[in-house]
Write a structure and sequence with these properties.
By secondary structure, the chain is mainly beta. It contains 4 helices and 28 strands. The chain has helices at 39-44, 220-223, 330-333, 405-408, and strands at 53-54, 59-65, 79-81, 89-95, 103-109, 130-131, 135-137, 145-151, 159-166, 172-181, 186-193, 204-213, 224-230, 245-247, 252-255, 263-265, 271-274, 285-289, 295-299, 320-322, 336-344, 353-356, 369-373, 378-386, 388-398, 401-403, 416-424, 433-442.
């Protein structure tokens, strides 16, 4: 991920080869066709899910990342090479009472995010249970909490890992997906293409890519699998992409499509608000009540951006930065705010409308669902969020997932980040290895 330093002032300017077992979209079975779960239902299900998930309503502000080493910068996503020179970090808050015994463990998963058959000793050199003993209490905050942090232990093989935090009795509190990839196993070429179509070339971003393997791969056309993501999201990732050309002599697989299999809506730059201080109104904030418990913040009224021309400004691609400008050290000094959203709409949308971004784990969670106020022709909602700088979209729930295009529009000029995951299961082995990884910034702004 590109490192960002958030400015004090943001200036707004305006022939197919068949594959073997396909990668199934892990999100497909969980996409509801009817309005989302209530908050109680969301947290009532304690069954472990092999995705980014929070199981307890008191657990807040979960961040799983690779540190950049610089304060005030957006963290890198939880993707590391097998050397693991910079370990993955997990941080979270638990609201309210005294600390409890909290542990963490790793589960090695296959490419479909189901548990692999490997034993702990085959991917770890230590006991697969971490006691999370690093935690601190918040300092003079209206909403008290404990802030926990832990580093991921080193693993010995590449692939998908689910990092699970457990509370008393082994009840899951948090699960987070982590990627560990091999360096130099394959050469991945990822580049922006041009959609072969009419109007779509103005709204979609296409990614063409190729894989050159300099190691002996058995039946690579069948056994190499890829996943393509936009802004490190799992909810709209593209699975089961098949190579369009297999060049055995050059040891290369090419992926170039004509039906938008490798294209994403460019959308617009993310909406944002700055709540790093409660002594003045940050960008996007209309009002603050610093005396309330919890403190409250009302955002500026907003409206749809569909049909509008593209507007260029810097964003952080849906992420967030937790920071307190009053006292520094947002980990324990950051206040929690009841943040109110207001989205004007002359008529209700075709489905439920949500706030979507890293703040919601890229899920249509009920606490981020907006309610339509017919009298005032607006959607309203609120969520408990920690002090910081936030990016987000609005999205309508559909049978196939979140759709932000009706609210945000879509432009090929938008700056987005993409990454490609390359998996391979060697014959006779019992797991899928992540043998290649590549990122690409599309329309990256020049410094």
């Amino acid at each position: 991920m590109r490192n960002y330093t958030i400015p004090l002032l943001l200036l707004l300017a305006t022939a197919c080869v068949p594959l073997g077992t396909p990668i199934t979209d892990p999100n497909a079975a969980r996409r509801p066709a009817t309005p989302g779960q209530t908050g109680a239902e969301y947290y009532a299900d304690k069954k472990l899910r092999y995705e980014d998930y929070v199981y307890d309503p008191n657990v807040r502000t979960v961040q799983c990342y690779v540190p950049t080493g610089q304060a005030g910068e957006v963290f890198n996503p939880p993707v590391v090479p097998l050397s693991q020179g910079q370990p993955v970090q997990l941080e979270f808050d638990v609201l309210g009472g005294p600390g409890q015994r909290v542990t963490a463990k790793l589960i090695h998963c296959d490419l479909n995010w189901q548990p692999s058959v490997l034993t702990d000793m085959q991917f770890l050199t230590d006991i697969n249970e971490q006691n999370i003993t690093t935690y601190r209490a918040s300092v003079n905050t209206k909403v008290p909490y404990l802030h926990y942090s832990v580093q991921m232990p080193r693993v010995t093989i590449s692939g998908n890992y689910l990092w699970v935090v457990q509370g008393a009795g082994g009840t899951p509190l948090i699960s987070r997906r982590v990627l560990v990839f091999e360096e130099g196993a394959v050469q991945v070429r990822l580049q922006q293409g041009i959609p072969v179509a009419g109007q779509e070339r103005y709204t979609l971003q296409q990614l063409d890519f190729g894989i050159r393997y300099n190691r002996q791969l058995v039946n690579p056309a069948q056994e190499v699998k890829v996943v393509l993501r936009q802004n490190f999201r799992w909810d709209n990732a593209h699975y089961n992409l098949r190579p369009t050309f297999v060049r055995d002599a050059e040891q290369q697989l090419d992926y170039q499509y004509f039906n938008f299999e490798n294209a994403f809506p460019g959308l617009s730059e993310f909406r944002f608000f700055d709540l790093r201080t409660f002594r003045s109104l940050g960008i996007g904030v209309a009002a603050i009540d610093a005396e309330a418990t919890p403190r409250t913040a009302a955002l500026q009224p907003e409206t749809t951006r569909a049909g509008q021309g593209y507007t260029q400004y810097d964003d952080i691609n849906g992420q967030r930065v937790i920071e307190s400008r009053e006292y520094g050290n947002g980990d324990t000094n950051g206040e929690y705010f009841d943040v109110a959203f207001l989205l004007r709409a002359e008529a209700p949308a075709a489905g439920p409308v949500y706030v979507l971004g890293a703040l919601s784990d890229w899920q249509l969670r009920d606490e981020f669902r907006l309610t339509y106020d017919a009298a005032n022709q607006a959607y309203r909602g609120h969520a408990l969020l920690k002090q910081g700088y936030y990016n987000y979209y609005y999205a309508t729930q559909t049978p196939t997932g979140a759709n932000s295009v009706p609210w945000e529009g879509s432009h090929q000029e938008t700056e987005n980040q993409y990454d490609l995951l390359v998996y391979y299961r060697p014959p006779g082995t019992r797991t899928d290895l992540l043998i290649g990884y590549q990122r690409l910034d599309v329309n990256r702004r020049r410094p």
